[in-house]
Specification:
The complex is a heterodimer of chains A (178) and B (652).
Chain A: H1 5-14, E1 27-29, H2 30-34, H3 37-41, H4 45-52, E2 59-61, H5 62-70, H6 79-82, H7 94-105, E3 112-114, H8 115-126, H9 132-146, E4 153-155, H10 156-162, H11 168-171
Antiparallel strand pairs in A: 1-2, 3-4
Helix pairs in contact in A: 8-9
Chain B: H1 2-5, H2 9-21, H3 25-38, H4 44-53, H5 64-89, H6 93-96, H7 99-117, H8 127-144, H9 148-153, H10 155-181, H11 193-203, H12 208-218, H13 222-251, H14 257-289, H15 299-316, H16 321-339, H17 342-371, H18 380-408, H19 415-423, H20 429-436, H21 444-473, H22 485-505, H23 510-529, H24 539-559, H25 567-571, H26 588-602, H27 610-628, H28 634-651
Classes of the chains: A mainly alpha (178), B mainly alpha (652).
């Protein structure tokens, strides 16, 4: 937890984060997160909340909360040179950020985004405006564009490759977590 | 204005026409010269001359004054466009020298010609014409096609450079030049501090026209492009305020601190007022296009009219016209694009591009023409120091500001980017027009000379060398990728994700505000401004449809060898290929076989990879060719291919 030390202090100072409902102070449950109003209207709100509870557990402790948010720390460019290769990759590296995003698509955790999962994600984001057929063809096209080995699903490596031009380090970063 | 503009063109024309008419060329020349001297186009003397020359009815008469103004304007535009064709005919030159430099050279040549033919100075670009007619099309084009996502992502940096950077430059240049003026050697003692600051304020601003014409050709990465370009557009607000502030100071007997405070307040008024007027006209334009379903033909007109009105209204209130027109174009674009037809969209795009191109060309030619002549006082020390200070202060400004930007932002600006931003600070026609608007005082010509040299230096020297520098420094260039639907979806996905995480962490970052704006848009604005609200489309769906359409056209073209006109039938989603000419009867069974072959193989074509589809087409092609090699009738071959192509179109 060495690298996320500073950010966890910053978060503790912030206090009112919506956590700490009726339970013990410093612990949160799914309901607490759901009470954050803006998340309720966010199309991906449920999935984001689910990502905080990785193993199906019902309570979220503070280190777990911080671990998830640590994915969104801006990447420190000077760190790369001095990093000890034996240590595990820091949580805010590009690969780990992508893995976090991948998990939001991949609901059944099989390591691949199938057409069905893509369809579900699309339905959340675009759903009300288009017909079911159009959604299916959009999902088809999306999987086609990213899929290289022709298995009809997008694996993590294919996902990473399709995003290689996007500046993930800067996109998936929140300034205050620096 | 026109008689100053094209003073000598009728001269040349008149010579030509008089020679044709057989009257003495010299006397005509003499008369027209006299007219120029008198400065009025009194027709009396010419009429007298004509009536003396022949008392009979003329078969062929010359009435130049009647068409003079539009004729001269058209001739200038024609000259500019022909010059452009000329450059592009020789392939090597445009890659080394940017177009703006070439146009300035043409202008210089024209100016030299005019000056040598007639000893007076050539016509100078009238500031009114520039600000009211030549500048708005360029700015409108820039604002309408501005990529809004990178613009708003970098808006903080852009505003910092535009506002603080320009003020830093203005005061820095003004004060340093005042310091130079104190040196007795240069004979500049009578240039006051106020005049120096005034000059500093107009020379400090980076010009959007020059930046656009140079950066368009060098294709740097999007973020860098938007930083320089956004800065050049938004610094107009600062320039307007500073210029008018110093102007009012020069007219006031004494300056109190209250006036300075009023100046600062005025800045906010100018900027925010401009944005407000722009948004107002943008919303009205979007609302108007809601009702244009039955009169599609005049739809493009509304876009232009409302944008121009917003510019003029802002200028009327002495607010920033450029900011207003940008705000108008950006706010109206989204709704107007959804309401108007595809053809109107194309019309708007090409009209805007054409107008802005013409304006751009004219501006640079006039810059060249106006350089020659008696308008300048060539005090070389002052001029050289102006150029040096412009460069130094810009570099310093960019360095200092970027330091602050990188502290606050995740999106850092690298050293290479900083260099290009500093080097890309080109001055252009706006400074030029502003310097001509200065009131007449003893040293005005000095300022005109200095401005001319700075503009020529930045456009020619910096414009020419920036391309090799970009290559040398290996600055990230714009990626040559075509948009994919999956990328669009992922971008949207990240928007939602980041907005959600920002909510959780309690931080009101850019995604939060973007989300809020989207919410406001979908709840209220779309209902009022869009014609068919139930069909409001998300960008994902729109992109998908656009790509599918393009895909269908590509497939049709790959299938089409001979008949281009029938490609229109492919895009019609009819159930039957009615428009295809029927093949000869004896080949009917061949046709049936082919039809079956294609129908079974092309079912579910949409679900195939594009690569596979192309292979399938090639396979079908070769099958057909071998099948039909005995048929020598090329008409049948072509009609069969057309039929096949039509089937492809139907399936898609």
């Amino acid at each position: 937890m060495k690298k996320v030390g500073t950010s966890s202090l910053a978060l503790q100072d912030r206090g009112g984060l919506g956590l700490g409902g009726p339970g013990r102070a410093g612990d949160g449950s799914r309901m607490d997160l759901q009470q954050i109003g803006a998340l309720a209207v966010n199309p991906l709100g449920d999935r984001i909340i689910d990502s905080f509870f990785p193993d199906g557990s019902l309570r979220l402790d503070f280190p777990g909360f911080v671990r998830v948010l640590a994915h969104f720390r801006p990447v420190d460019e000077e760190d790369d040179g001095n990093r000890d290769p034996k240590e595990p990759e820091p949580l805010n590296s590009r690969m780990n950020k992508l893995r976090f995003a991948f998990q939001l698509y991949d609901l059944d955790r099989d390591g691949k985004i199938s057409r069905h999962e893509m369809l579900q994600a699309l339905r959340l984001m675009v759903g009300v405006q288009v017909t079911e057929e159009q959604l299916e063809s959009i999902a088809d096209r999306t999987v086609q564009e990213a899929d290289e080995d022709g298995d009809g699903a997008v694996s993590f490596l294919e996902f990473a490759k399709s995003l290689e031009k996007m500046n993930i380090e800067q996109k998936m970063s929140i300034r205050i977590l620096k | 204005m026109a008689h100053r503009l094209g003073l000598l063109l009728p001269l040349l024309l008149g010579q030509l026409c008089s020679q044709l008419l057989g009257t003495s060329g010299n006397s005509m020349l003499h008369y027209w010269n006299l007219k120029a001297e008198n400065g009025s186009w009194g027709s009396k003397r010419i009429q007298d001359n004509a009536s003396v020359a022949s008392a009979h009815t003329l078969l062929f008469s010359l009435d130049y004054q009647h068409v003079q103004t539009p004729f001269e304007i058209t001739l200038w535009i024609m000259l500019a466009s022909l010059a452009k064709i000329g450059f592009h005919l020789c392939n090597k030159i445009p890659t080394v020298v940017p177009e703006s430099c070439l146009l300035i050279f043409v202008g210089l040549i024209m100016g030299g010609l005019i000056y040598s033919l007639n000893d007076k100075s050539p016509p100078v670009m009238n500031s009114d014409i520039f600000f009211l007619y030549l500048l708005p099309p360029i700015v409108l084009d820039a604002g309408y096609f501005m990529p809004s996502r990178p613009f708003f992502e970098n808006i903080g940096t852009i505003l910092l450079y535009a506002v603080v950077g320009t003020m830093w430059n203005a005061f820095g240049i003004g004060l340093s030049l005042y310091g130079i003026c104190q040196v007795k050697l240069f004979n500049l003692k009578d240039v006051s501090l106020l005049h120096n600051l005034w000059f500093g304020s107009l020379i400090a601003a980076v010009d959007p026209v020059a930046v656009l014409s140079v950066f368009e050709e060098i294709h740097v990465n999007e973020k860098l492009h938007i930083l320089v370009f956004g800065e050049s557009l938004l610094n107009d607000a600062v320039t307007v305020v500073l210029y008018k502030l110093f102007k009012s100071f020069s007219e006031m007997p004494s300056i109190k601190s209250l006036d300075i405070l009023a100046g600062i307040g005025k800045f906010f008024l100018v900027g925010i007022g401009g944005i407000f007027i722009g948004l107002l006209f943008g919303m009205i334009a979007a609302f108007t296009t809601r009702f244009t379903k039955t009169i599609r033909v005049i739809e493009p007109l509304f876009v232009f009219l409302y944008s121009y009105l917003s510019y003029l209204t802002a200028e009327m209130f002495h607010l920033s016209g450029i900011v207003a027109i940008i705000a108008c174009a950006m706010s109206m674009k989204r709704y107007v694009e959804a309401n108007i037809s595809q053809k109107s969209h194309t019309t708007i795009k090409y009209f805007m591009k054409m107008w802005s191109s013409v304006s751009d060309t004219l501006i640079f030619i006039f810059l060249g023409v106006s350089t020659i002549g008696n308008n300048h006082e060539w005090n070389w020390p002052y001029i050289c120091f102006t150029v040096i200070f412009c460069l130094i202060w810009r570099a310093l400004g960019v360095l200092v500001l970027t330091f602050f930007v990188n502290k606050c932002h995740v999106n850092t600006v690298t050293r290479k980017d900083q260099f290009i931003i500093a080097y890309g600070g080109l001055r252009g026609a706006i400074c030029f027009s502003l310097v001509f608007l200065l009131p007449e005082f003893s040293r005005k010509k000095l300022f005109i000379a200095a401005t001319t040299v700075v503009i020529l230096f930045t456009v020619i020297v910096q414009g020419m060398t920036i391309r090799p520098l970009v290559d040398l420094l290996d600055v990230t260039k714009r990626g040559e990728t075509s948009p994919t639907v999956s990328e669009q979806i992922l971008i949207r996905f990240f928007d939602h994700l980041l907005a959600g995480v920002e909510d959780i962490s309690g931080h009101w970052g850019q995604y939060y505000w973007k989300d809020k704006l989207e919410y406001l848009n979908s709840k209220y604005l779309q209902k009022i401004l869009l014609r068919e609200y139930d069909q409001a489309r998300s960008s994902i769906v729109l992109l998908y449809e656009k790509l599918e359409r393009k895909h269908a056209i590509e497939l049709a073209e790959a299938g089409q060898l001979v008949h281009t006109p029938s490609s229109t039938s492919l895009l019609r989603r009819h159930g039957t290929a009615k428009s295809v000419p029927s093949p000869a009867p004896q080949d009917q069974d061949i046709m049936d076989n082919i039809q079956d072959l294609l129908a079974t193989n092309l079912y579910r074509v949409r679900r195939m990879c594009p690569r596979l589809i192309r292979q399938l087409i090639q396979l079908t092609h070769s099958v057909l060719k071998s099948y039909l090699h005995s048929l020598t009738d090329s008409r049948i071959l072509s009609s069969i291919l057309t039929y096949r192509g039509a089937l492809l179109g139907v399936n898609i």
